[in-house]
Amino acid sequence: MIDAVICGAFGRMGNTISRLISESDDIRVVGGVDVRAGTISGAPVVASAEIGDLLAKTKPDVVIDFTIASAVVANVKAAAAAGSALVVGTTGISPEQRAEMDRAIMGHVPAVISTNYSIGVNIFWELLKAAAPLLKDYDVEVIEAHHRYKKDAPSGTAKTILQILDNGLGERKKCYGREGMTDRKDEIGVHVIRGGDIVGDHSVLFSGNYETITLSHHAYDRSVFAKGALQAVRWIIEKEPGTYAMADVLGLVR
Ligand SMILES: NC(=O)c1ccc[n+]([C@@H]2O[C@H](COP(=O)([O-])OP(=O)(O)OC[C@H]3O[C@@H](n4cnc5c(N)ncnc54)[C@H](O)[C@@H]3O)[C@@H](O)[C@H]2O)c1
Known about the structure:
This protein is an alpha/beta fold. It contains 8 helices and 13 strands. It has helices spanning 12-22, 51-58, 69-82, 95-105, 119-131, 156-169, 223-236, 246-249, and strands at 2-7, 27-34, 38-40, 43-47, 62-65, 85-88, 110-113, 139-146, 174-176, 188-194, 200-208, 211-219, 242-244. The strands form 2 sheets. The protein has an 8-stranded mixed β-sheet with strand order 3-4-2-1-5-6-7-13, with helices on both faces. The chain is elongated and about 60 Å long. Nicotinamide-adenine-dinucleotide binds at residues 7-8, 10-14, 33-35, 48, 66-68, 71, 89-92, 114-117, 152, 156, 225.
C-alpha cells in the first residue's frame, strides 16, 4: 500500500485525486494540507504551517502537490526533508522557484514535476516536437482556454508548448495578445481564454498561405490529470533521487 499526503487537499485537483485514490486498492490518503484544517477521505487535513508535523507523524511514501506557486516550494522542502517522494502538478512556478525546488530534491528524494499529467497532453507534446522543426516557415499561434478560477496565465501547459516550439523552431519573440495596428513578423502569438468551467484546451496553429495545420488537445474532465498523477505516484516511489518528467513515467524519453 502506498501512503500519500495531498497538498491542496480541498482544491479541484486535490478532490479529484482523493476520489480516484479512494477507488484504487494500492494507494491510500493518510493526510492532507490546505490553508485550513479538516478531513479528506477520513484522513486529517492540516493547515499549511503544520505540514512538518503531519509528515513526521504519517511518514508518507509520496507527497502530491496541486496548490499554488506561492505555496509549492515550502511543501516540496518539507516533503524532501521528510524523505517522501513527490508528484508536483502546481503551475505558474517561476524559474527561481523551480531552482529552489530542484535544490531541495536533488540527492534527497525522487520527484515527478509536470505542468500536465494527462497522457493525451504528453503525447500532444511529442507530436509538437516532431512537427515544429518541419514547419519553420509557418506562422505559429498558441491558444489556451481554462475555467474562470484559474489563477496563472498562460497555463503551465502553454508554457511547456512554448518551450517545445523554441527548441524546434529556434527562439522567437512571444506576443501575448494583439491590439491596435499590428505588423506580423515571426513572433509566436499567445492567446489566453478564461471562462466558465472549461477544464483545459490547448491549440497550436501553423499557418501558411492557403493552409493551416492545427494540433489541439481538449480535456473534458479533471480525472485525466488525476489518473496520470496516480500513474506517476506508482512509478516514482521506486526511483533514485532526482527530478523526472511525465515523459519518463510514460517511457516517451528516448
Ligand atoms: N499538472 C497538471 O496536470 C495540472 C492539472 C490541473 C491543474 N494544475 C495546477 O494545479 C494547481 C491547483 O489547481 P486546482 O484547479 O486544484 O486549484 P484550486 O484553487 O482548486 O486548488 C488549490 C488548493 O490549494 C490550496 N492551497 C493554497 N495555499 C496552500 C498552501 N500553502 N498549502 C496547502 N494548500 C494550499 C487552496 O486552498 C486550494 O484548496 C494549479 O497550479 C493548477 O494550474 C495542474
